[in-house]
Design a protein that fits this description.
Family: Belongs to the FKBP-type PPIase family. Tig subfamily.
Helix content: 40-55%
Function: Involved in protein export. Acts as a chaperone by maintaining the newly synthesized protein in an open conformation. Functions as a peptidyl-prolyl cis-trans isomerase.
CATH architecture of the largest domain: Orthogonal Bundle
GO cellular component, one term: cytoplasm
CATH superfamily of the largest domain: Trigger factor, C-terminal domain
Low-confidence stretches: 431-446
Mean pLDDT: 92
Number of strands: 11
Subcellular location: Cytoplasm
InterPro entries: PPIase_dom_sf (IPR046357), PPIase_FKBP_dom (IPR001179), Trig_fac (IPR005215), Trigger_fac_C (IPR008880), Trigger_fac_C_sf (IPR037041), Trigger_fac_ribosome-bd_bac (IPR008881), Trigger_fac_ribosome-bd_sf (IPR036611), Trigger_fact/SurA_dom_sf (IPR027304)
């Protein structure tokens, strides 16, 4: 097989491929055997007519076209591999010549990944925040543990206070008319949690069991349901019950109840370790993101529209899956937000362009630095996945197929590792603590 490549405009190339005659003839014979089984020819059993009879009945062109469909796909893949091309779209194929005893010639026009002009990507200055956990962070963490493991005490003769959990019946109206979804019975609501519209929960503070209250609220102007945005609503609320959190004292018994620690001191030390580890992970994630952003910003590349459009489509599909988890269709979301698919595509475009450029730049750096996953790294990742999914590694390997996606993911991770290793840490600017506090850390100690 012979293949020549010509570069065209806008990341397009033209491949001209010549497939050797014996290979073409074999495909023509195979095409005849396929077609003769599909055609009813008078006087012959199906599949038994000689080729010259089939040609008289349907002509040579269908046989040649079928042979081309057999030959061209693998020949195209071979030509792409030979010239180390990276197509990003389906090729436009033109058959130049196909006939008995002659080579098949075809042309394939296809868009390929663009060339990336890399800027500096080593020695990049990246801020690295210090990891620091204070006693106040640990105290706040413990407070959250107290809240989480608090006992609920039934309140009968006292008014509801902020932090209490009230059970309510409620029914709302807008412009004097009931509105779907604005009513409920025996609904548990923690006062001060921000679960309901701003102002709703505050108006229930001081209410007693079986007391009825009229609650007036105004929906935000940017509320997700356009029909309610900016509207005033009136709720008739009946408090059916009140429960108050009873916090356990912070002592050794509390530590034993909520963790595997024997003493409160041990629990505080465990919390410190967890918060420090969480902060380290946040700092490392921030460094990785920053170094990638700088490397990408320093590079120049013409973004292929087909890759951007695919990324936009992927974002819309992800949105649709998230909506389905909330029992909402994409059509309902668009109606509620007064948007169209075109609006979503416009919103998602900047992020899609950023993703595509990041992907292309990281691939170019990996190529420049010859970064590839080793067999040991591939095996280790399969072992890790097997532990997560509680499956045999061979089963995971089989389910992954050709491992191309796994290899790509490892390559990208190693490329980012390379950027971080070759970056230059600099002190952070004065902008407050960067580490995670007890308010945002994971709440359950070992």
């Amino acid at each position: 097989m012979k293949a020549a490549v010509e570069k065209l405009d806008k990341n397009q190339v033209l491949l001209e491929v010549e497939v050797e005659a014996p290979r073409v003839q074999k495909a023509i014979d195979q095409a005849y055997r396929r077609l003769v089984k599909q055609v009813n020819i008078p006087g012959f059993r199906k599949g038994k007519a000689p080729r010259f009879i089939l040609e008289q009945y349907i002509g040579k062109e269908p046989i040649y076209n079928e042979a081309a469909e057999i030959v061209i796909p693998p020949a195209y893949e071979e030509a792409v591999a030979e010239h180390q091309l990276e197509p990003i779209d389906r090729p436009e194929v033109e058959i130049v010549k196909v006939e008995d005893g002659e080579p098949l010639v075809f042309k394939a026009r296809v868009e390929v990944k663009p060339e990336v002009q890399l800027g500096p990507y080593t020695g990049l200055e990246v801020e690295r925040q210090e990891v620091e956990v204070t006693e106040a962070d640990i105290d706040a963490y413990l407070k959250r543990l107290q809240e989480r493991y608090a006992e609920l005490e039934v309140i009968e003769d006292e008014p509801a206070a902020a932090g209490d959990i009230v059970t309510i019946d409620f029914k709302g109206t807008v412009d004097g008319q009931p509105y779907p979804g604005m009513e409920g019975n025996n609904y548990p609501l923690e006062l001060g949690s921000g679960t309901f519209i701003t102002g709703f929960e505050e108006q229930l503070v001081g209410a007693r069991v079986n007391e009825e209250r009229t609650v007036n609220v105004t929906f935000p102007s940017d509320y997700h349901e356009k029909d309610l945005a900016g509207k005033e609503a009136v709720f008739q609320v009946t408090v059916r019950g009140i429960k108050r959190k009873k916090l356990a004292p912070l002592d050794d018994e509390f530590a034993k109840d909520v963790s595997e620690c024997e003493t409160l001191a041990d629990l505080r030390q465990d919390i410190r370790r967890r918060l420090e580890e969480s902060q380290k992970q946040r700092v490392e994630a921030a460094v990785r993101q920053a170094v990638v952003e700088k490397a990408v910003a320093a590079a120049t590349v013409e973004l292929p529209e087909v890759m951007v459009e695919r990324r936009i489509d992927a974002r819309i599909r992800e949105l649709e899956r998230n909506l389905q988890a909330q029992k909402m269709t994409l059509e309902e979301f668009l109606k509620n937000t007064d948007k169209t698919i075109g609006d979503l595509e416009k919103e998602f475009r900047p992020g899609a362009e950023r993703d595509v450029k990041t992907e292309l730049v990281l691939e170019a750096i990996a190529k420049a630095e010859n970064i590839q996953p080793s067999q040991e790294e591939i095996d280790a990742e399969i072992e890790r996945m097997a532990r997560i999914f509680r499956q045999d590694p061979d089963t995971v390997r089989k389910n992954l197929g050709d491992l191309s996606v796994l290899k790509y993911d490892i390559m990208i991770k190693k490329t980012i590792d390379f950027l971080v290793e070759h970056s230059k840490p600099v002190p952070p600017r004065e902008q407050g603590a960067a580490g995670e506090t007890a308010e945002t850390a994971e709440a359950t100690p070992a």
